[in-house]
Amino acid sequence: MATKAPSRAQSSAQLKIFAPVPAPRLRMICCAYAGGSAAVFRGWHERLPRDVEVCAVELPGRGARFREPPLRTMRALADDTMVGLLDCADADIVLFGHSMGGVLALELAKRLVDAGRPPLALFASGCAAPHLPSRRHRRLHDLPRDELVQELDLLQGLPAGMLDAQAFIDMFLPTIRADLESRETWRTEIRALPVPIHVLSARHDALVWTPDLGEWQRYSELPLNVRLFDGEHFFIDTHRPDVLAHLSGVLDALPAVAGAAADRAAAPIGQ
């Protein structure tokens, strides 16, 4: 029996690996919601299969990259993240994204497909199908400070407790505003990918309408999977055990591609 080579991926500016896994079967690339950092996914590895390595995306303007100016287009966010994916080719990839992160995950999936390295799965969480009109009545990213904070609160667009920390809001609002701009100005083609899509949504999410979840089918050639959870927009935080139990079951069932790690180690993404 051939012995797998050790994983060559390591934490970088773009990706944070909280618990490296030797020779992982899968590498799960996780994209946070607007304003969120890699820390959103801290501890996830403890409830996922041991052979899955969790790699949390760290975008400019937050976390370890707080001093970098935030990026304002989805293309720039995807470009930045792809730099971190260059060393991830020695294991199969799955993508997870929540809210704005779901859109970024879709863009990454398209790029990986075009590079001949389609992800084994895409998890779109708390995210409406990208071609649907926003449920907001107006664009948020160019609103005055107080109006923006009020709108985010009404739309469940801020994690619980953030409104009580005004200094914290002022520190991170430029990054949240840039993230909103990247989402609100983003346009993409509707293109069915050879990638299974798993949609995760909350029953009381003010930003995602449950009857529209089936629209995600237009982005996959394979049958769509939809799972509803209790909670509101930030259900991945408030109902984390349920979410991770579901993800763990799906990840356990994903087949490993025979010989993929050895073959891909010799050919980085994009080559």
TrEMBL record:
InterPro entries with a match to the protein in the record: AB_hydrolase_fold, TEII, TesA-like, Thioesterase
Gene Ontology MF: a single term: hydrolase activity
Domain Thioesterase TesA-like: 29-251
Gene3D superfamilies the UniProt entry points to: alpha/beta hydrolase
GO biological process, one term: lipid biosynthetic process
Transmembrane segments: none
Keywords, sorted A to Z: Hydrolase
Family statement: Belongs to the thioesterase family.
Name this protein carries in UniProt: Thioesterase
